[in-house]
Amino acid sequence: MQHDERSTLPQPDAPSAEHSERVAGFIRACIADAGGSLSFAEFMQHALYAPGLGYYAAGSTKFGAGGDFVTAPEVSPVFGRVLARQCAEVLADVTNGAILEYGAGSGKLARDILETLARLDTLPDRYEILEVSADLQERQSRYLQAELPELASLVSWLDRPPENHKGVIIANEVLDALPVERFKRSAHGVKQLRVEVDGDGFRMAGAPAPENLLQAVLAIEEDLGGRLPPGYTSEISPRLAGWVSTLADSLQQGLAFLFDYGIARREYYADERSGGWLRCHFRHHVHDNPLILTGIQDLTAWVDFNAVAEAALQGGLDVAGYSAQAQFLLGGGLEAEMREFETLPLPSQLELSGQVKTLTLPGEMGEHFKCMALRRGDVRNPSAFSVGDRTHTL
Ligand SMILES: C[S@@+](CC[C@H](N)C(=O)[O-])C[C@H]1O[C@@H](n2cnc3c(N)ncnc32)[C@H](O)[C@@H]1O
What pLDDT score was predicted for residue 6? Predict the structure, then answer.
């Protein structure tokens, strides 16, 4: 159930509030054009990606302490350093391999990976970034020029997935940023949750689910072996399969590492999760009302990793591993990276150790975040899955 979180959330400053009003006005016009309502996925698409307006498309700080949320590369360079060791393993098995990162955020992960590969003397010729937000592309470019002037020439931005990518693909918290549909089960059918105008704001309203959403819910229920209970509300990511399929088409040989907070389908649609997995992030406060702070808060939904695996298999990839982030890091070279701390001054060692705890403790990012690796061709099993591979739980 939604409740009004506005009283407990920080107030946006005046420019943010004005910006939010512009985004809300744009969406109200879209709702009018569409005849009175938008599907939740359409609303989320506009709120996050409307050109020049949406959360990821406009200029506010999103990542890190001054933004709305932190991601693993924002928490610590150790995340990228361990991932770089996994990239090195793949690149050793692939001739002329490159790295392709989807949705590179601030650019920090690219910096940490390139720095580490330079240290390990395993730099690829190219590090490509595919980023839907023009504003973020510009920020990433400025950041990498400033932070890594000697390696920045390796980095280029693509406007579409490459045709024959060999090497590594990385996506950290991209799947959770794809717009989701929301649905509600009733005793007699399935409702699609749609967004309508409500005075100056928005409200959610149910309408009979269109055929594709109905079939998607029925397919999930068949897989679960029973109907979801009446009143059960949750999400489905309609773009996820297409996104994975495009990735599969691109990957000629190598591995894709997809990180996100998510779980297996059985847990995703467990009876006790009857409110779904949509989350909103504003100034480090997490809440569940997507209809406020339009365009200035992040909207995200946890990932059903069975859906990722199914789309991957459909696209001819195999699942090379699936584990919690903590196990991925432990198996993937965390210890070796931590040995590098020993030469640093004590305050830096303590700071990095604290960051490692945030990345690995189960109550922090260690358990909720998962990594799924997808493979095409002759590439060895990533060492990161040598401990705690959970592929068999899917
Ligand atoms: C939650 S942020 C994560 C940013 C970064 N990977 C990190 O971990 O800090 C989601 C990112 O994915 C990008 N994005 C969303 N949909 C995308 C898509 N279809 N292709 C590429 N990037 C996408 C967003 O613009 C944003 O940069």
Answer: 63
Ligand 1 center from residue 172 Cα (angstroms): 7
For the segment 278-323, what is each residue's pLDDT rounded down to a tens digit?
A: 999 999 999 999 999 999 999 999 999 999 999 999 999 999 999 9
Ligand 1 centroid – CA 107 distance (Å): 11
Q: Does any ligand 1 atom lie closer than 6 A to the CB of residue 103?
A: yes
Q: What are the tens digits of pLDDT across the range 164-206?
A: 999 999 999 999 999 999 999 999 899 999 999 999 899 999 9
Q: What atom of ligand 1 comes closest to residue 300's alpha carbon?
A: 1
| Nearest residue (CA) to ligand 1, atom 11 | 103
Is the CB of residue 133 below 6 angstroms from any atom belonging to ligand 1?
yes
- Residue 68 pLDDT > 90, yes or no? no
| pLDDT above 50 (res 1) | no
CA of 182 to the centre of ligand 1 (A): 21
Query: Which of the pair, 57 or 110, is modelled with greater confidence?
Result: 110
Q: Is 74 in the pocket of ligand 1 (CB under 6 A)?
A: yes
Average pLDDT (44-61) is: 91
Mean pLDDT computed over every residue of the chain: 95
The verdict on the CB of residue 63 being under 6 Å from ligand 1 is yes
> What is the atom index within ligand 1 of the atom nearest the CA of 56?
25
Confidence of residue 146 (pLDDT cuts 50, 70, 90): very high
Pocket lining: 68 vs ligand 1, CB cutoff 6 Å:
no
SS (H, E, C) the chain: CCCCHHHCCCCCCHHHHHHHHHHHHHHHHHHHHCCCCEEHHHHHHHHHHCCCCCCCCCCCCCECCCCCECCHHHHCHHHHHHHHHHHHHHHHHCCCCEEEEECCCCCHHHHHHHHHHHHCCCCCCCEEEECCCHHHHHHHHHHHHHHCCCCHHHEEEECCCCCCEEEEEEEECCHHHCCCEEEEECCCCEEEEEEEEECCEEEEEEEECCHHHHHHHHHHHHHHCCCCCCCCEEEECCCHHHHHHHHHHHEEEEEEEEEEEEECHHHHCCCCCCCCCEEEEECCEEECCCCCCCCCCEEEECEEHHHHHHHHHHCCCEEEEEEEHHHHHHHHCHHHHHHHHHHCCHHHHHHHHHHHHHHHCHHHHHCCEEEEEEEECCCCCCHHHCCCCCHHHC
Q: Locate the ligand 1 atom nearest the alpha carbon of residue 69 and give its number.
A: 1
